[in-house]
Amino acid sequence: MKVKIYTDGAARGNPDGPGGYGTVLEYVDTKGELHTKELSQGYKKTTNNRMELMAVIAGLEALNRPCEVELYSDSQYVVNAFNQHWIDGWIKKNWRRGKNEPVKNVDLWKRLLTAKEKHRVTFIWVKGHDGHPQNERCDALATGAADGANLIEDVLGEA
Question: Which residues contact 132 (CB under 8 A, 6 or more apart)?
Fold first, then answer.
């Protein structure tokens, strides 16, 4: 099955304020009908990079069987998740970087790698705020999630 996943995170410029991610899965069933599934969640006390990773993980983990995935994101941080040289380097260095500094969000990186292994993923970077219709859609989803003040439970675990 082919699935398109649109993701985005929104920190609202304040790590102690409302933020959230938006993820939408689009797929065509065996009858040729288009379906969408929305996963959105608000957060407190987290970072934009963390929310970008959570958006991608939520989308990939929501798929209950191996799929061919087109993943859309405007995050440079997520771009780097799909740069195997970068990830492989961290694994070989026992998740350390630079002057032996620990890599941030290792729990999420490992979870992303596990989720990604199940599927054939094509990553498509839609440069942020350039009017690209796919990016505008991702932004709208994330904004909706960030504005959901009553959704503050981190369902994907702690850092």
Answer: 126
Buried b (16+ CB within 10 A) or exposed e, 51-88: bbbbbbbbbbbebeeebebbbbbbbebbeebbeeeebe
Q: Is 42 assigned a catalytic role? A: no
Question: What percent of the chain lies above the pLDDT cut of 70?
Answer: 75
pTM of the model: 0.81
Instruction: Express each pLDDT in 19-55 by its tens digit.
Output: 678 888 889 888 999 998 888 777 666 777 888 888 8
CA distance 26 to 67: 12
Catalytic choice (20, 22, 42, 139):
139
Catalytic (active site) residue 130: no
